[in-house]
Design brief:
The structure holds three protein chains of three kinds. By secondary structure, chain A is mainly alpha-helical. Chain A contains 15 helices and no strands. The model of chain A has no long low-confidence stretch (mean pLDDT about 80). Chain C has a domain of about 240 residues: MetI-like (MetI-like fold), CATH 1.10.3720. Helix content of chain C is about 65%, strand content about 5%. In chain C, helix 8 packs across helix 10 and helix 11 runs antiparallel to helix 12. The chains are: A mainly alpha, B alpha/beta, C alpha+beta.
Chain lengths: ~350, ~250, ~400
């Protein structure tokens, strides 16, 4: 068959996909119209008729008829850093950079050993904390209550992961314990936490926990809330790790037992590494969800990214510009979440091809 | 449908997967009541060829006629042909959410608009023919591979087709189950069904085939009566293939 | 060494470890309870559930049945639970319908539709739900004031809510009528899907199903007729009366903002589950159906959809439980769901522990019963026997 004939069949197939039946044609027209409309609104509202620059205000923006990006130009520091002291905000920016670096480093497969990852995350968290809290290296101390915006969001996320992950491993190991009482009770704890809304756990930690703790354990509200988020994360992550355990052929642990390895050697060298490998895609997905759920702390009164955005347009003369502020915040979340989930998809594909070669 | 016309008439059939030329100008004619066995190495295009006959694969050029009805762009002729051409698959492809009986009555009731009682009577008749009437209320997942394939044959027969296509019907079966499926196929052949079978069961080919076709690299290399095909193959490629299949 | 052999005995170690584990948990629980009792005693609060009969003294801004400030706590809690279930039902239904559409677009052959579906999923799934909720709520509040209400086909839309024209009948009657319609619809689906009716002729089955639906509608109509007060107008149209809107059926901004947020967000997840379900259906089964002469619609409705549904149900169960929990976000915009009623009650009464216990009990009940119902459905439709090919 000639290439012309082949391109004719290509055309035939194309026509069949798009206009094969009245339904398909209708679907095509609807989809194209919707796509076009979305694109047009984005370009027209967001660029063509939009007002840029810090000197814009409600009148000039209304005259333009499009987006009023002036609100971002004027209020971006409030959105990004909340009520963190203005002169010290470079520290908050640096702290955000630290977290970004830690996350980027953890995405490099060569650094995937328990020791290296633990080192990176501990160092990163310590540096972040030193920068934000101050009081060392000649930095002025900044109280946790003044933390806000993106650094607070990132702090809650990182701390949730750093505390939640060991907790998750512990819970997962307890749940598959050979001792029936331990396994059963851990199962109940995990299932109960999972059936509660995260918001109710955060609320309990913020408001109720102080009643139940002896004075020396109460601490800052921020840390209690982070603990609640970590507990919730751990309950879900424990089930993901358990799924990883179930994917390991039983022969693996039997072989390790037959070789005379102790419980901790079996877990540390044979079972956990394989379980983590199997659970990796779901784990990344769980981290993505955990990142999005940091925004829930706005309900218990924290000034994280979303709440800082709310203040940015609810005060002053910017009440009309809610869409612009939310688009700006959404872009920040989207960049992070989309990037991480694409990375997860890439890893999954990489692992699948690895399996095919086995 | 013109039952006096040749059952299947294929001329100059071409099929591409991207730039891969899967079928290269195939010509084939099958008379009513004829049994044709197609064999050849994997990737030779034999499955693709019979899947073109009921348009599970769309061909790119050439013509296919079934009892004189041409497969063109019209959906009506496709419906007509699929009603008259039954197919049995390598992986059985029974519907796992329906009982054996429901698998057999689904198409007659939906496509031929047969009443349920009649469809069930027909189904039971064919289930008896494939020797598993006692399994009618079970689900496919509860049957062995051989039983599933016999149900699949009964399901195809329930549409009372003029032609049956078999796409490697015994390749997914354990050795001890192959015989029970082949027995059913031999019975069908003896009753005069028009059959096109892609299979490596050379014993079956020798026993029932009117004609054996050898395909390689998307072409028909050789076609002959089974006696001549097995004793005096003309082409070198056929000889090599036969030595590999029959060698052990 | 006697101690060492003692410790190395398997049964002894088992008892010690498990006993220690239980003792640790008991110590945490008892310690917390004792501390809490001391703290509360210092604040002059007594524990117990007697307060449930006390009047609340604050208002609930949305409830399906009427509430007043003199209603007791238990009534408020019940209304809060109903609000949660109501929002869950609306959200799950909307998310499922929209998700099915998006999922079908994503698994179809039409590239334009696929792109649109992908855009939808990537946008809604990759943004925090609460951000989306704030956005919809801000949008609802940015609508014009009541005096400049937008009028759309008899409905009024303004910053105070959406006012739909409605029947002039009481909320109880409406609930009963909706219940009748819903039961009719459920019965109709049951007739179409249940094993018991599979032996019927297809036409007869369809007729019986339609009859069930019709009966439900008829019952609803009778309910409405009976609930209507003679001599009053049949319909109630919203109309501007000074600074506010009179008549009609008002949907508050927090209600529809939350409903939209849960539907659109949930649909992105449901859409991915639907796509996964369709992907899990083996091509072989569809080819077999096509080879038997079934039309594309018959292949879809008799083979592809039933198999895909079985593949997606287990994951959908988790997603539904998750979405029900997401209704608690209502507190961020002031929708009085179960959690918000609890939170306000704690603020007003100080009976912290009792309310936290009720909160946990309530959600355990909702989630376990939802999961139990769906798991039962899952078992009922699960494929029988060992599956070799096709659906995993």
């Amino acid at each position: 068959m000639t290439s012309a004939a082949r391109s004719r069949t290509g055309l035939k197939r194309w026509r069949k996909d798009y206009f094969g039946s009245p339904g398909a044609a209708l679907m095509t027209l609807f989809s194209l119209a919707a796509l076009g409309a979305i694109l047009w609104v984005l370009v027209d509202w967001g660029l063509i008729r939009a007002t840029f620059g810090a000197e814009g205000n409600q009148e000039t923006c209304a005259a333009g008829g499009g987006a009023c990006w002036s609100v971002i130009a004027v209020r971006w520091r409030v959105i990004l850093f909340g009520i963190y002291p203005f002169e010290e905000q470079w520290r908050a920016a640096l702290a955000c950079g630290t977290v970004a670096l830690v996350i980027l480093l953890s995405c490099i497969p060569r650094l995937w050993s328990f020791g290296r990852l633990a080192l990176i995350w501990t160092l990163g968290t310590a540096l972040f904390y030193a920068l934000m809290r101050g009081g060392v290296l000649g930095l002025a101390p900044v109280n946790e209550q003044q933390w806000g915006g993106l650094p607070l969001t990132l702090f809650v996320f990182v701390a949730t992961g750093v505390i939640g992950m060991p907790l998750a491993i512990g819970l997962a190991l307890l749940r598959r314990s050979d001792y029936p009482v331990i396994a059963r009770v851990s199962g109940w704890i995990i299932d109960t936490i999972r059936s509660l809304p995260l918001l109710s756990i955060l609320f309990t930690c913020a408001i109720v926990l102080p009643f139940m703790l002896p004075g020396f354990l109460i601490g800052e509200k921020l840390y209690r809330v982070v603990f609640g988020a970590a507990l919730f994360f751990a309950a879900y992550q424990a089930e993901i790790i358990r799924g990883g355990f179930q994917g390991i052929p039983s022969g693996q642990e039997e072989a390790a037992k037959a070789l005379g390895l102790s419980y901790w050697q079996r877990m540390g060298r044979i079972v956990l590494p394989q379980a983590f490998r199997l659970a990796l895609p779901a784990t990344i997905n769980q981290f993505v969800i955990a990142f999005m759920e940091t925004s829930l702390i706005v309900v218990v009164g924290f000034m994280e990214l979303l709440a800082a955005g709310n203040t940015a347009f609810k005060t002053g003369d910017w009440k009309f510009a809610y869409a612009e502020v939310y688009v700006f915040i959404a872009a920040i979340y989207f960049t992070f979440v989309f990037g991480l989930s694409r990375y997860g998809a890439y890893l999954e594909a990489r692992m699948n091809t690895g399996h095919a070669k086995d | 449908m013109d039952l006096t016309a040749p059952a299947i008439e294929i001329t100059g059939l071409d099929k591409f997967y991207g730039s891969f030329h899967a079928l290269k100008g195939i010509d084939l004619c099958v008379a009513k009541g004829e049994k044709v066995v197609i064999c050849g190495p994997s990737g030779s295009g034999k499955s693709t060829l019979i899947r073109c006959i009921n348009q599970l694969e769309e061909h790119d050029s050439g013509a296919i006629r079934v009892f004189g009805t041409a497969l063109d762009d019209s959906l009506a002729s496709l419906d007509e042909i699929r009603r008259e051409v039954g197919m049995v698959f390598q992986q059985f492809n029974l519907f796992p959410h329906m009982t054996v009986l429901e698998n057999c009555t689904l198409a007659p009731m939906l496509v031929r608009k047969t009443a349920r009682a009649e469809a069930e009577a027909i189904a039971m008749r064919y289930l008896e023919k494939v020797r598993i009437p006692d399994q009618a209320q079970k689900y496919p997942g509860q049957l062995s591979g051989g039983q599933q394939q016999r149900v699949a044959i009964a399901r195809a027969l329930c549409m009372q087709p003029e032609i049956l296509l078999f796409d490697e019907p015994t390749s997914a079966l354990d050795p001890e189950m192959i015989a029970e499926v082949l027995d059913v196929m031999v019975t069908l052949a003896q009753e005069g069904m028009t059959m096109v079978c892609v299979t490596h069961e050379m014993g079956f080919a020798r026993k029932v085939a009117d004609r054996v076709i050898f395909m390689d690299k998307g072409e028909i290399v050789e076609e002959a009566a089974p006696e001549a095909f097995f004793t005096a193959p003309r082409s070198e490629r056929t000889r090599l293939f036969l030595s590999q299949v029959l060698g052990h | 060494m006697a101690g060492s052999t003692f410790w190395r005995s398997k049964s002894v170690r088992g008892i010690v470890l498990q006993g220690g584990f239980l003792a640790l948990i008991a110590a945490v629980v008892i310690g917390a309870t004792l501390t809490a009792r001391d703290t509360l005693a210092a604040q002059g609060l007594t524990s117990g559930f007697g307060f449930l009969r006390k009047a609340t003294g604050w208002e609930m801004n949305f409830s399906l049945l009427p509430t007043t400030t003199s209603d007791p706590y238990w009534w408020y809690l019940l209304m809060g639970l109903m609000n949660t279930l109501f929002m869950g039902l609306v959200g799950l239904t909307g998310a499922s319908v929209l998700g099915l559409i998006v999922g079908l677009m994503r698994s179809g052959r039409n590239p334009a539709a696929r792109l649109l579906g992908t855009l939808y999923i990537e946008l809604f799934r990759n943004l925090p739900l609460i951000l989306q909720l704030f956005f919809w709520y801000a949008m609802a509040n940015a609508l014009p004031a009541p005096r400049q209400s937008l009028e759309i086909g008899g409905a009024l839309v303004n910053a105070r809510g959406i006012y739909l024209p409605g029947l002039a009948i009481g909320p109880g009657t409406v609930a009963l009528a909706l219940l009748a319609v819903a039961s009719g619809a459920c019965l109709a689906v049951w007739v179409l899907a249940a094993r018991r009716f599979r032996r019927m002729e297809p036409q007869g089955q369809r007729r019986l199903s339609l009859a069930a639906l019709g009966a439900g509608l008829a019952l609803a109509a009778v309910t409405v007729l009976a609930g209507h007060e003679p001599g009053t107008a049949w319909t109630s149209w919203p109309a501007l009366a000074g600074l506010k809107v009179d008549g009609g059926f008002r949907i508050q901004p927090e209600v529809y903002a939350l409903a939209i947020a849960i539907m659109t967000y949930g649909a992105a997840y449901v859409g991915e589950i639907v796509r996964g379900g369709f992907k899990a259906v083996g091509r072989g089964q569809m080819e077999a159906a096509a080879a038997l002469g079934l039309s594309p619609w018959q292949v879809f409705s008799r083979v592809r959809m039933p198999l895909a549904f079985r593949a997606m149900l287990p994951i959908l169960i988790n997603q539904y439980v998750w979405l029900i929990k997401a209704t608690t976000l209502g507190i961020a915009v002031g929708f009085s769901d179960f959690f918000m009623v609890i939170a306000s009650s704690i603020n007003h009464s100080g009976q912290t522990f009792e309310f936290i216990a009720i909160l946990m009990g309530g959600f355990l009940l909702i989630n376990f019963s939802l999961a139990a119902v769906l798991n039962r459905l899952n078992r009922a439709i699960a494929l029988k026997g060992h599956q070799t090919t096709g659906v995993q």
